[in-house]
């Protein structure tokens, strides 16, 4: 495998972003091992009052890197009174997400006022019986046969997006991808006509993310209790999103139409007593799917174009495959098995820039993980950002090398060394949908345009609910 220009990352000892340059392995040799279960655990010292919350809030990714670099694969930390263990061994992660999934629920982070305001009791945040029932209801919309029918919509909206691009323009690719994916998700799942309000929805999302990140900064969170410009903007953004979603529900209830989509399925669902879902329950599910579906996939595509702008060899291989398989025509669902390099590009992007960078769980009862007792109420963090860049599992971990996914040794990878879609019962419901959307959109755009960056252009990751590009991703369109 050749080593090409690596993806920006930051290692080193300080928390400062060190974008570009060679990837400095933050996980080396004996430091990063699973200490015997009998030995006492060591973790970063924090302040007596807030524990490690301030350090985490200032630079979440840098803090996590420092934890595993300095203390290994099982690191105790504390946020205020909350005890948390950072798990970095794929076997422990698998244990928590799959084998012992019943012993855990999502953490307090999913139940904060901000998260409740965004997702309510939708699939991402709900638990127990309610979650089981809602997951069963939503599942058919994500079956293979069903998502195959979404392919045309995806390609159609992608073509519409690039139809107005002109050669030589600089565009914020993240913004473009958000606009495209929100249209895809609303059309495929809710059969909604494209509305100008969607732009407002997108405009709201960065405010929502901004508000979310301040949760970790306890002092700002305290100020957040007082009316502030940010909380006002957040409330306005959420009101706009609500208006849009309640509008969809009202329209469908009024027409009584069975569009055969997820919205109709949810509207027809009945509780045991024969009653249907309330408008509020529907709002929570639709908002959840819309936010989860547009944001994550848009990020995967945006980071892909960023990485491709720095890796011309990969672009050449991608173009070669697109020419051979498609020869200039629009891609379709049947082409997916042949677009293997295109898929590897997306997989490799999600390795270096996982849209979901951390998963958190809280123990419902005392249990044993990696030979250590986790007490009821204690939390666990498992980070894709850390695992996906771990040189013990990925050679040249900081380099963008899509072709690595072809190699025999990658088939031996422990399952939870790479888990962009999570795992176990709460695995991403939209994973196949997202992969299909990303591959088809990448193939469609790359046949028409190459997106290039000025020399030395770098974008820092901003770990909000998902991994945002700070300041967007500004690339220049070059017609092919
Ligand atoms: C590249 C794209 C995507 C990535 C990386 C991604 C990642 C994830 C991850 C890691 C989880 C698990 C979180 C946890 O266990 O705490 C998750 C859950 C979820 N995702 Fe995705 N996702 C993507 C696309 C989508 C799409 C397209 C949809 C829907 C249209 C979607 C809907 C959901 C929902 C509803 C859940 C919660 C599932 C449950 O708890 O039952 N995601 N996603």
Task: Explain the overall architecture.
This protein has 480 residues and is α+β, with helices and mostly antiparallel strands. It contains 17 helices and twelve strands. The chain folds into two domains: 1-114 and 360-419, Orthogonal Bundle (Cytochrome p450); 120-356 and 425-480, Orthogonal Bundle (Cytochrome p450). The strands form four sheets. The chain has a five-stranded mixed sheet with strand order 1-2-8-5-3. Strands 4-12-9 form a three-stranded antiparallel sheet. The longest helix has 32 residues, at 279-310. The chain is globular. The two termini are 28 Å apart. Bound molecules: protoporphyrin IX containing FE (HEM). Protoporphyrin IX containing FE binds next to α13 and α17.
Which blocks of ≥5 consecutive residues have pLDDT under 50? 1-32
What structural class do you assign from the helix and strand content?
alpha+beta
CATH topology type of the largest domain = Cytochrome p450
Largest sheet: 5 strands, mixed
**Order of strands across the main sheet:** 1-2-8-5-3
Ligand inventory reads: protoporphyrin IX containing FE
Instruction: Determine the N-to-C terminus distance.
Output: 28 Å
Number of strands: 12
What's the rounded overall pLDDT mean?
87
Radius of gyration: 22 Å
Overall form: globular
CATH architecture of the largest domain: Orthogonal Bundle
Number of domains: 2
CATH superfamily of the largest domain: Cytochrome P450
Helix percent reads 40-55%
CATH class call of the largest domain = Mainly Alpha
Element order: H for helix, E for strand: HHEEHEHHHHEHHHHHHHHEEEEHHEEEE
Strand fraction equals 5-15%
């Amino acid at each position: 495998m050749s080593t090409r220009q690596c993806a920006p990352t930051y290692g080193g000892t300080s928390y400062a972003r060190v974008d570009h340059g060679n990837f400095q392995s933050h996980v080396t040799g004996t430091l990063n091992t699973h200490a015997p279960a009998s030995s006492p655990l060591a973790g970063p010292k924090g302040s007596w009052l807030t524990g490690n919350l301030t350090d985490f809030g200032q630079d979440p990714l840098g803090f996590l890197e420092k934890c595993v670099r300095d203390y290994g694969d099982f690191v105790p930390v504390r946020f205020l009174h909350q005890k948390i263990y950072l798990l970095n061994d794929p076997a422990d992660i698998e244990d928590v997400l799959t084998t012992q999934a019943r012993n855990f629920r999502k953490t307090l982070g999913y139940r904060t006022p901000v998260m409740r305001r965004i997702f309510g009791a939708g699939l991402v945040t709900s638990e127990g019986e309610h979650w089981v029932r809602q997951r069963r209801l939503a599942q058919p919309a994500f079956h293979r046969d069903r998502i195959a029918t979404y392919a045309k919509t995806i390609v159609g909206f992608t073509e519409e997006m690039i139809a107005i691009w002109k050669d030589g323009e600089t565009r914020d690719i993240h913004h473009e991808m958000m606009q495209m994916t929100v249209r895809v998700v609303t059309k495929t799942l809710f059969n909604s006509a494209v509305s100008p309000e969607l732009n407002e929805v997108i405009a709201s999302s960065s405010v929502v993310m901004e508000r979310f990140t301040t949760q970790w900064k306890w002092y700002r969170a305290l100020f957040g209790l007082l009316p502030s410009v940010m909380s006002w903007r957040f409330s306005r953004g959420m009101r706009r999103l609500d208006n849009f979603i309640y509008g969809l529900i009202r329209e469908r209830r009024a027409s009584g139409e069975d569009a055969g989509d997820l919205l109709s399925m949810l509207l027809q669902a009945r509780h045991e007593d024969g009653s249907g879902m309330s408008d509020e329950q529907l709002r929570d599910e639709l908002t959840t799917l819309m936010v989860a579906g547009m944001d994550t996939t848009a990020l995967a595509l945006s980071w892909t174009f960023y990485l491709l702008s720095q890796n011309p060899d990969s672009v050449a291989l991608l173009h070669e495959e697109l020419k051979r398989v498609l020869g200039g025509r629009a891609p379709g669902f049947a082409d997916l098995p042949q677009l293997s390099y295109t898929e590897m590009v997306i997989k490799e992007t999600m390795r270096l820039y996982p849209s979901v960078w951390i998963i958190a769980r809280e123990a419902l009862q005392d249990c044993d993980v990696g030979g250590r007792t986790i007490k009821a109420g204690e939390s666990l963090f498992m980070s894709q950002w850390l695992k996906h860049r771990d040189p013990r599992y990925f050679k040249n971990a900081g380099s963008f090398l899509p072709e690595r996914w072809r190699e025999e040794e990658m088939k031996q990878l422990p399952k939870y060394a790479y888990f962009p879609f999570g795992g176990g019962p709460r695995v991403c419901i939209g994973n196949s949908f997202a992969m299909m959307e990303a591959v088809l959109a990448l193939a469609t755009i790359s046949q028409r345009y190459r997106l290039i960056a000025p020399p030395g252009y770098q974008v820092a990751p901003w770990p909000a609910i998902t991994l945002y590009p700070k300041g967007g991703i500004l690339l220049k369109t070059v017609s092919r």
